[in-house]
Amino acid sequence: MSDNIDNYTATDKIIAKVTAWLSAIIVSLLLIFGIIYLWNYFRFEETNDAQVQEYINPLVTRISGYISQIRYEENQQVKKGDTLVIIDKSQYLLQQDESQQALLNAKSQIDVLVSTIRTNMESAAVVKTQISAARAKLTRENQEFARYSKLYEAESATQQQLENVKAALDVATADYNSSLANYQAALSRVEDFRKQKAGLTAEIRQRESLLAGANLELSYTVITAPYNGKMGKKTIQIGQYIQANQSLAFIVNEDAGKWVIANFKETQVGQMRIGQDVRIEADAFPDQIFHGRIQSLSPATGSSFSILPPDNSTGNFVKVVQRIPVRINIISDNSKTSGLESGMNVVVKVKK
After folding, report:
1. Structural domains of the chain in order of their starting residue, each with its CATH number
2. Predicted confidence band at 295 (pLDDT cuts at 50, 70, 90)?
3. By CB neighbour count within 10 A (0-12 exposed, 13-18 middle, 19+ buried), where does 262 fall?
């Protein structure tokens, strides 16, 4: 009986010692974590309401048509200028050819008009020389009529001679007036052709614009990467009909870099300033520290930018701590940030 009591007492002592050591270790750990927490609390403003952001833009087609080729794979890395999608260009080649033929036809018509204008100007020049001859003949007949009129008054010429001279004068006058009329008609024809040329010139410019538009639409049948990036989910197939302005895929813009949007409480941003250094810890890489710098603070809370901002004047007011979005540029080198993808959760710490 006494042996059992001694054994029980020894075991109890061992348990007591182990419990004491465990309690000491737990208290020490709690103390250490408490000190670390207080150190971070007094030294940093911290939030885990933060995500990595990148520009993710839709790849949009400007024309309608059937997809003939797809030259990218889902999640593929692409370079600026790489061909991604080719749309069947048959109808756009026809439009281009039609515009080219219409332009050539208009240019041939203007060539004919230029030739016609030149011919009519030469004809006008010929008529102008005829006017000079008719004017000289009219002057001579006027002088002849004046001389015979004096001779007739002096009874040195007969009535018949005077009438013959008067008839010749009338013919010369008619020829002169006819030459003037022909010259004016020739000038009018030249002016009419010049107006037609001006109208045809305007038509040529219109045809050139239509051809440029046809060439532009033809170029839109080849869709290329607008910048270096990474393709998103593939949702299109060869032979699929697509409409103009339809989104074909999404591409992540890697040229624009990455940043973090951290939503700090309004009680945390009082002493934050643009240019402050920031520590970033990603959930995906718990053992790695990324560095950033505050680029800007939002001019309003996140709720103020929502579609239906809260209206506290309705009488249902409940005070809620608001969040202020803070944009942070990641300044670590690309090799370190390559694993950070848009939408990843991070923890952001800013020194007080």
Report:
1. 44-57+253-351 (2.40.30.170), 60-86+222-249 (2.40.50.100), 90-219 (1.10.287)
2. very high
3. buried
Q: How far is CA 154 from CA 41, 150, 158, 159, 166, in A?
A: 139, 6, 10, 12, 17
Q: Could you tell me if 255 and 37 are in contact, meaning their C-beta atoms sit under 8 angstroms apart? A: no
Question: Using one digit for the tens of pLDDT, what is the confidence trace for 64-100?
Answer: 999 999 999 999 999 999 999 999 999 999 999 999 9
pLDDT digits (tens, 9 = 90+) for 216-273: 999 999 999 999 999 998 889 999 999 999 999 999 998 888 899 999 999 889 889 9
Q: Do 162 and 148 meet the contact criterion of CB atoms below 8 Å apart?
A: yes
Distance CA 306, CA 221 (A): 38
